[in-house]
Design goal:
This protein is an alpha/beta fold. It has helices spanning 71-93, 143-146, 151-154, 165-173, 177-196, 201-219, 236-247, 253-273, 291-316; strands at 2-9, 15-19, 23-27, 39-46, 105-109, 118-122, 136-137, 140-141, 161-162. The protein has 9 helices and 9 strands.
């Protein structure tokens, strides 16, 4: 079944992308005023046809009968799962967060109107015709250059893809079910980090590191943690550092050691000692972009980049 939905990014799509018969991405036909921080685009994707699903728990079915779930609900659920999966995947494989709204409610005022009128409202996609506008394909960049640390901060003002995007998608959709389930947990944690990094940066760091730790735990499942002498053979910290250094292939050994040591030390201070990111502390308005703040922000972007590279290289090797 063919489904179209709106999603958002923080930089615009000016080109289209099609992956086989699975999904297509293209810019939305909407006139923007230049003040919008969330840029709408359209995704078109295929989902399998519905099959009858049954209530497994009698307590969840007030009739007490094993009735089938309505096919429309099953189809809508399948569509949502596929939609969310593709957005998570593109947020990992590209340097840009792809997201949708969660129907959060709040007071708001329209920035496009003056005088501003304040009202209670809800996040909602704008009314857009689900048809794209004519455009070229999404620009692609050589992968080693694309995934350089912090490349997103100095890259194109429009969304670009790595030139390996089709190979990465082929590999993902060809993963064994077990590996895909493990990776999906890490992708969810990674996306949580993206969502948190402009609100609670300390928790964003924890989410990024946890995304890697999930894969570390999977890879080390069943390994003995101690040797015969009783000493710790595979400590948690050592497992993490070994994993990241294994998959962070584009850096020198010294850079790898510096990165992983600082990342894990920062995560441990946040979790165990209240060592909050400087952004999460009270500060003067004029210090918002001081030297230390900028340094910490760049370090957060480095953690994001290293997490992305680690997750991608992990599943490429499965």
């Amino acid at each position: 079944m063919n489904t179209k939905k709106i999603f958002f990014t923080l930089r615009p799509y000016i080109g289209f992308f099609k992956y086989k018969d699975q999904f297509s991405i293209y810019p939305a036909s909407i006139e923007l005023k230049g003040i919008e921080a969330h840029i709408p685009a359209i995704i078109e994707f295929q989902t399998a046809g519905t099959k009858k699903e049954y209530f497994e728990d009698e307590e969840s079915n007030f009739s007490g009968l094993k009735d089938p779930v309505p096919s429309s609900i099953v189809q809508q659920t399948n569509d949502t799962h596929k939609y969310d999966e593709i957005l998570r995947l593109l947020s990992l494989l590209t340097n840009y967060h792809h997201f949708t709204y969660s129907c959060k409610q709040a007071w708001f005022s329209s920035l496009a109107e003056f005088p501003h009128k304040v009202a209670w409202g809800q996040e909602l996609a704008p009314p857009i015709e689900l048809s794209g506008k004519e455009c070229n394909v999404v620009e692609k960049t050589e992968s080693l250059e694309y995934y350089k640390l912090n490349n997103r901060l100095s890259g194109s003002s429009n969304i670009t893809y790595p030139d390996s995007i089709n190979d990465l998608l082929d590999k993902y959709f060809g993963l064994a079910d077990e590996h895909k389930r493990v990776l999906d947990k890490s992708m969810r944690l990674f996306v949580q980090g993206l969502e948190l990094q402009n609100k609670m940066r300390s928790l964003a760091i924890v989410a990024f590191v946890s995304a890697i730790e999930n894969l570390v735990s999977y890879d080390n499942n069943g390994k003995e943690d101690t040797c015969k002498c009783g000493e710790i053979k595979y400590g948690v910290t050592r497992k993490f550092k070994t994993f990241v250094k294994q998959y962070l292939t584009a850096n020198t050994e010294k850079e790898k050691n510096d990165y992983v040591n600082k990342i894990y030390d920062t995560r441990s201070k946040i979790v165990h000692a209240g060592g909050l990111h400087i952004y999460d502390l009270d500060k003067n308005f004029w210090d918002m972009w001081g030297k230390e703040e900028l340094k910490d922000y760049l370090f957060l972007q480095t953690i994001e980049s290293i997490t992305r590279i680690s997750l991608i290289n992990w599943y490429k090797n499965k």
